[in-house]
């Protein structure tokens, strides 16, 4: 049973690696960023509320993402495991998740901290060129990461759930390391 959380700055490879690993393991890849972008595309009430935050590189309010994570984690397909990519992103969201997982009997999750230096992630994101991948928005997302998300590294280290992987390697090398971790 694999339950993994991917942490790391924007552009560190969370989404890229989570997708590969989830396919390998045949478990759902739950990306809050993807769910929000899909909702924005379809202009659902969630998408309309989220769009200015996502486009500016700000975190969407906790309540919105927490509701969507809760709804997703009670679906039948998560019984065989899951990979959470991009959630939690704040200590408040981590507290919410801890409580939720206890309620729905889904403990034992491990946390992968994918690390990569700022200049590397800026270059990758500029090359990708999503709507929120302009230089100004990327710099802002990195500030938000440092202030809001990086404290989760200590949070999960204290709970002995943290595994750090160097994201500044080829995609294949990172995938190999992650495959070793999930099979160990
Ligand atoms: P996300 O969708 O999570 O976006 P991200 O942090 O930029 O990372 P992503 O996973 O897409 O990119 P990756 O590193 O894989 O969030 C977007 C927005 O949604 C947030 O800013 C926020 O507004 C909102 N949001 C999401 N979750 C939220 C939450 N919990 N609370 C509040 N708001 C939330 O890949 C980047 C690029 O690098 C790709 O082009 C890839 O091909 C390349 N790449 C990856 N690995 C590489 C490697 N090893 N070598 C070379 N290139 C590589």
From TrEMBL:
UniProt GO molecular function: kinase activity
EC class (word): transferase
Q: What is its main location?
A: cytoplasm
Q: Which CDD domains match?
A: ADK (cd01428)
Where does this protein hold ATP? 11-16, 128, 169
Superkingdom, natural source: Bacteria
Where does it localize?
A: Cytoplasm
**The reaction(s) this protein catalyses:** AMP + ATP = 2 ADP
Which residues does the annotated region (NMP) include?
31-60
Q: Please give the Pfam families that the UniProt record associates with this protein.
A: ADK
Identify the SUPFAM superfamilies for this entry: P-loop containing nucleoside triphosphate hydrolases
* Subunit structure, as described in the record: Monomer.
Domain description: Consists of three domains, a large central CORE domain and two small peripheral domains, NMPbind and LID, which undergo movements during catalysis. The LID domain closes over the site of phosphoryl transfer upon ATP binding. Assembling and dissambling the active center during each catalytic cycle provides an effective means to prevent ATP hydrolysis.
Q: Which family does it belong to?
A: Belongs to the adenylate kinase family.
Q: What is this protein called?
A: Adenylate kinase
- Source organism per UniProt: Nodularia harveyana UHCC-0300
The root-end lineage is: Bacteria, Bacillati, Cyanobacteriota, Cyanophyceae, Nostocales
């Amino acid at each position: 049973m694999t339950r993994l959380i991917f942490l790391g700055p924007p552009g560190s490879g969370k989404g890229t690696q989570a997708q590969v690993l989830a396919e390998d393991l045949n478990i759902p890849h739950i990306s809050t960023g993807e769910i929000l972008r899909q909702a924005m595309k379809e202009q659902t009430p969630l998408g309309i509320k989220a769009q200015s935050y996502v486009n500016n590189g700000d975190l969407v309010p906790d309540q919105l993402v927490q509701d969507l994570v809760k709804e997703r984690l009670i679906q039948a397909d998560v019984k065989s495991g899951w990979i959470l990519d991009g959630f939690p992103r704040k200590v408040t969201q981590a507290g919410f998740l801890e409580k939720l997982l206890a309620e729905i009997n889904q403990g034992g999750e491990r946390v992968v901290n994918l690390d990569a230096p700022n200049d590397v992630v800026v270059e990758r994101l500029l090359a990708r060129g999503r709507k929120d991948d302009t230089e100004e928005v990327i710099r802002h997302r990195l500030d938000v990461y440092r202030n809001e998300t990086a404290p989760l590294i200590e949070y999960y280290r204290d709970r002995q759930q943290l595994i750090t992987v160097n994201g500044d390697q080829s995609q294949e090398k990172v995938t190999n390391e992650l495959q070793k971790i999930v099979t160990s």
